[in-house]
């Protein structure tokens, strides 16, 4: 399937980047520091490398929301599952780029579910999650619920679960960090999936077949790099 036309023109993507960059510095980059402070004990592990690669793409990937086969490699476009596939693919994991198929990705993490408390939602069972897990959210059509969104679990920040992935509201690129499950993100939570094997949270441990292959650099960009790209 060829990449679909993106929803933003180049000029629109640049304007969006400039409009929200200051907010990004005050929000996402603060959460990045919190992640690094909170999870120093797994620094350099495979799980940490996965999270750091997602952060790298957020900072240096200049991603615009869009769909299509290998859409990032071709045009710098990603949707939620393309982004997730891309990050894990840099470390030798072959997972689907179709969100609906994420109930087949890895294994289900038991004991994680949404609960409504005093009019707001919260995620129960976060003690069962590990950084680098994949969280999924449901949407509904005439056939019932299906997985309509996926993102990468970073860990607990500010006492709440945090995920990194595509989001369209108030970010300079297609990628941002969600750290509040009070409303849609809690109500629509579906399942947690684990792709990473045992040992992935141990610093210095090499997981055969999952060495860093380096990031993907697009052949062209809708949003041209606005700052020098710093390679990981």
UniProtKB/TrEMBL annotation:
Question: Which Pfam families is this protein grouped with?
Answer: NLPC_P60 (PF00877)
Q: Which UniProt keywords apply?
A: Hydrolase, Protease, Thiol protease
Show which residues constitute the signal peptide.
none
Entry similarity comment: Belongs to the peptidase C40 family.
Q: What is this protein called?
A: NlpC/P60 domain-containing protein
Q: Which GO terms describe its molecular function?
A: cysteine-type peptidase activity
Gene3D superfamilies this protein is in? endopeptidase domain like (from Nostoc punctiforme) (3.90.1720.10)
Under the heading InterPro entries, the entry gives: NLP_P60_dom, Papain-like_cys_pep_sf
- Residue ranges of domain NlpC/P60 in the record: 44-196
One record GO biological process: proteolysis
């Amino acid at each position: 399937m060829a990449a679909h036309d993106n929803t933003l023109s180049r000029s629109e993507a640049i304007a969006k980047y400039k409009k929200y960059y200051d907010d990004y510095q005050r929000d996402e980059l603060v959460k990045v520091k919190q992640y690094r402070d909170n999870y120093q004990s797994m620094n350099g592990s495979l799980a940490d490398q996965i999270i750091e690669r997602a952060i790298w793409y957020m900072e240096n990937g200049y991603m615009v929301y869009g769909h299509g086969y290998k859409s990032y490699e071709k045009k710098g476009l990603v949707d939620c599952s393309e982004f997730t596939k891309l990050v894990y693919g840099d470390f030798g994991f072959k997972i689907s780029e179709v969100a609906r198929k994420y109930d087949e990705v890895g294994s289900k993490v038991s004991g994680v579910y949404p609960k409504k408390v005093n009019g707001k939602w919260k995620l129960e069972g976060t003690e069962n999650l590990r950084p680098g897990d994949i969280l999924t959210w449901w949407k509904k059509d005439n056939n019932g619920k299906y997985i309509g969104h996926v993102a990468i679990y970073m860990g607990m920040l500010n006492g709440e679960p945090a995920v990194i992935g595509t989001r369209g509201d108030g970010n300079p690129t297609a990628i941002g960090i969600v750290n509040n499950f009070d409303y849609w993100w809690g109500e629509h939570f579906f399942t947690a999936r684990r792709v990473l094997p045992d040992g992935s949270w141990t610093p210095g441990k090499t997981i055969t077949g999952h060495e860093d292959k380096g990031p993907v650099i697009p052949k062209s960009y809708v949003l041209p790099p606005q700052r020098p790209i710093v390679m990981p």
